Amino acid sequence: MKGTKPGLVIAGLLLAIFVGAIDNTVVSTAMGTIVASLGGFDQFVWVTAAYMATETAGMPIIGKLSDMYGRKRFFLFGVTVFIVGSMLCGTAHTMWQLALFRALQGVGGGALMPVAFTIIFDVVPPQRAGRMSGMFGAVFGAASIIGPLLGAYITDHLSWRWVFYINLPIGIVALLLVALAYHESNRHTRQAIDWLGTVTLVPAVAALMFALQLGGQKYAWSSGVIITLLALAGVLFAVFLWVETKAKAPILSYAMFRERLFSVANLVGLVTSAAFVVAVVYIPIYVQGVRGGNASNAGLTLLPMMLGSSITAPIGGQLAQRLGYRTIMLTSGTIFALALVMLTQLTSSSSVWWLEAAMVLLGLGIGPSFSVLGMAVMQPFDPAHRGSASSTMSFVRELGMTISITIYGVLQRNRFDHGLKTLFASAPGPSGPAGFSAFPVSIPDPRMLLSPELRAHIPAFVLQRLTDVLTSSITTTFAWTLIPALLALLFSFGFGKSRWAGFTATPAASATPSFEGEQRRESVRPTGGTAETEAEVEA
């Protein structure tokens, strides 16, 4: 594309990927301290879930719009909203405020990551796609390494609020680089906007999350409120799926799912993300709540996981052409499942080496999915539909994480609450075992376990019993994550012998799906075994 400076554009995009990735790890590291500061132990999952909900709902919509009206404007929109949301998060004074501002930040995140990944494939030759995908994974891994350490340092030496403010300078530089150096073609695929799909998908995700979060906590599962929310989510999802069969330019195109690579990669991404996010959220809670560490300890515990993913992410992208998708994902999936098994064996007195070994294996196992699955979903499509393909993959993964963190959050919370009630029912006051007389009949605020200052006031006997209950709730949650991990192994067989061979979509290729109702204005021609649009060649 004439006038584009690829080096600067790639630098800006990689910074955007970096800031998006670093945000998740920084916030996870600081979560124990945030809960100790704001309270709301029963609400902290919403800080992650609110971000994921808006990011999830926005990804396929923004991906489709970027195919229609250009990727640059939606990338810049995403960075801007992400920056504003980050700034507001730093000003939050309650857990609900923080969750609300994270939801706004998630809107920006929904445009940031998938559109950035698509632009990278637009500005580099297809033969370098594998290398660029590996670079994407390496930057993601580097962000994951720096994030926990940076988050821990900021939280312990400045304030947890600065874990959000740190996004501002990085985001601004990324925005300026892409705004000034990226000049994309003005010729895009013009399609109708699927407004009905939009207004059914967003509230469907929101209703499901509210039902899962409030059920068994504020309202009984059999209450009218929860039943209504679940019914509303089911109806809206059903309507959304029906609408997508009629829309001229659907948010989720069923034609794409006729491609085996695309479908299998999305299935694997869905279940691996569902399992992975649980570890990212609950390991810091284990470190601070059970082992009595601070944010720095939580960050250092996550570091081996991030190191492992930064090694295997680029390697996976490089090996996709030689070994094939199935071999890579089966190998990494087995390592990933083994790590989860190790996490189920944690106790309040487990060796730090056991925990760190599990973290290394977890990182080695999840790393290849960051690069390999992204390559697989876009391989069958021409440039006019790669934005939708990439954003759909991101949507599916985020949907898996959103539903997972909500469901597993309910499981962990209910297990923890039940353990506390059982513990204190047997020792309600002075008549109970020694040490329990320090507490009233009511159960103590769980955030006491996450604050070193408050932990110091808990008698040793009581503290040991409380940490045992918390450990049990977390390890039980990890045990349930083995279900999606094993499903990932099963789904990986669906890749068959497929491997990375460049972008295969051409006008005559049977691999190119027919998108009914979508009027494509570009013609596609094969160039060196790959596909490019005439608009890009002319530009």
Structure, described:
By secondary structure, the protein is mostly helical. It has helices at 6-38, 45-69, 71-89, 95-123, 129-157, 162-165, 167-181, 195-214, 224-246, 260-289, 295-323, 325-343, 352-378, 383-425, 452-455, 460-480, 482-492, 534-538; strands at 524-527, 530-533. It has two domains: 6-194 and 247-418 and 472-538, Growth Hormone, Chain: A (Up-down Bundle); 195-246. Strand 1 and strand 2 form a beta hairpin.
Essential attributes:
539 residues; mainly alpha; Growth Hormone, Chain: A; 2 domains; globular
The gist of it:
With 539 residues, the chain is mainly α. It has helices at residues 6-38, 45-69, 71-89, 95-123, 129-157, 162-165, 167-181, 195-214, 224-246, 260-289, 295-323, 325-343, 352-378, 383-425, 452-455, 460-480, 482-492, 534-538; strands at 524-527, 530-533.
| DSSP strand tally | 2
Order of helices and strands: HHHHHHHHHHHHHHHHHEEH
Q: Class by helix and strand content?
A: mainly alpha
CATH topology of the largest domain: Growth Hormone, Chain: A
Give the biggest sheet.
2 strands, antiparallel
In spatial order, strands of the major sheet run: 1-2
The CATH homologous superfamily name of the largest domain equals MFS general substrate transporter like domains
Number of H- or I-type helical stretches: 18
Which parts are unreliable, with pLDDT below 50 for 5 consecutive residues or more? 430-435, 437-443, 506-539
How much helix, percentage-wise, in residues?
over 70%
Our measurement of the CA-to-CA distance between the termini, rounded to an integer number of angstroms, reads 5 Å
The geometry reads as globular
- Please indicate the percent range of residues in DSSP E strands (runs of 2 or more): under 5%
| Tally of structural domains | 2
CATH architecture of the largest domain: Up-down Bundle
- CATH level 1 class label of the largest domain: Mainly Alpha
